[in-house]
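BUG: 3D viewer hangs when loading the predicted structure for this chain

Environment: internal workstation, default settings.
Expected: structure renders.
Actual: progress bar stalls at 90%.

Input used:
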Amino acid sequence: MHRHSALRGAHVRQGIGTSGLVVHEPAIYIYPSLQGDGKFHLLPTGELLIHNLQESDESQSFRCRSMHRLTRQVVVSSPTRLRINSHRGIISPSVVEHTAHVQVSQDEGAVLLCVAQGCPSPEYSWFTHNGAGPLPVLSGPRVRLLGPILAIEAVTGEDSGVYKCTAGNVGGEASAELRLTVATPIQVEISPNVLSVHMGGTAEFRCLVTSNGSPVGMQNILWYKDGRQLPSSGRVEDTLVVPRVSRENRGMYQCVVRRPEGDTFQATAELQLGDAPPVLLYSFIEQTLQPGPAVSLKCSAAGNPTPQISWTLDGFPLPSNGRFMIGQYITVHGDVISHVNISHVMVEDGGEYACIAENRAGRVQHAARLNIYGTLYSHTHGMHSKHTDAHMRKMLMA
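Structure tokens produced before the viewer hung:
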């Protein structure tokens, strides 16, 4: 069984390790609070403070009971008791326990603890530090002065700063400094939230971080595209630059701000491609064939919006028969690929083929001949000419 010693009339801090409740045996339950009940004060952080110790307190024992937040498993400590040392002389105060740094989020409660021992029991005073020097802390609707405890309800950013507690008696005084940090909520915005850039241009996004309307600097900023983190130099980078924009760069971008205490905030923006006229990525070449085999002509193009590809033969639409098959599909990168397959090519299939890629930003075309040995055929009149196969060879060789 453990015992804790304290001067009579002093305040004792019992560390219970984790938030929960304390059982004051035989059957009194003490729950965490900001203010306590005047005798017992279980802090939200798990410490038990006992005010105004008396001889009768030595007969009492305490148990700490905590519950795991996820598993709900309950753990109860072994009992502990107090041992009080009586002293009739004068002992100057000494601070035996204080919270050097307390960090809470805005609108939460904050407890600053400063426990001193001395004889007679010391009186406590609290001060705040600013540029003009220390100012006394006064009780108010949100502020409670509870001897060794300064409790502040619904903290704001203005409550942040350095506090000083002073414990004094006729033998002297002792003091300690405590820092309170209030993490105010931040707002994250990407400017612009929608950006349209032509292919080959430069895109630039800026991550704006504010708190209560004022800019916040030196934040840990990460950039993501479509859920994947982008490489970072390890520095604070509130601006993201995308040079030479291509199709692969379009999509959703995120600016994620992570604070040291672990909170994260994020904003999203979209990079769109501006209109871009079609550009041919691949085109077929001129061919000379004997009648009979199959032949395939292919064109591919890029642009924004994705272009449509059409085909002509000597300036006319392709023949509508079972030997001609036109196929077209779009790749994952947004390029369009179109092909013309001709089965069992014939003399009348010869001529100048053209693929035309077109969107609202413009058009581009490519043309090349498909030469088939045999009697020449006029697509304009749908008639055979009197040129012989030998004559055709001479024309091809000319």
